[in-house]
Amino acid sequence: LKSPPEPWGWPLLGHMLTxxxxxxxxxxxxxxxxxxxxxxxxxxxxxxxLSGLDTVRQALVRQxxxxxxxPDLYSFTLVxxxxxxxxxxx
Length: 90
Known about the structure:
Layout: H1 16-19, H2 23-34, E1 37-42, E2 45-50, H3 53-62, H4 64-67, H5 74-80
Antiparallel strand pairs: 1-2
């Protein structure tokens, strides 16, 4: 499969520095440049970013089984001491 477009990111850090304090604004700008489906990296972990109502609806409603589950990102476990409901795999 062909990977979605991805902006340049820092080695090992990925796009964490690029996202800054307003990741929603940066992701919106990236989607205007790269389209409704793009990939970023949080550290070395690839993350698929979906923008636009039709694209999100396609992913969540029509292809929900392909997108279910939550990311297993070590950085979130480290920051939340494993207690975050947001990234709980259950």
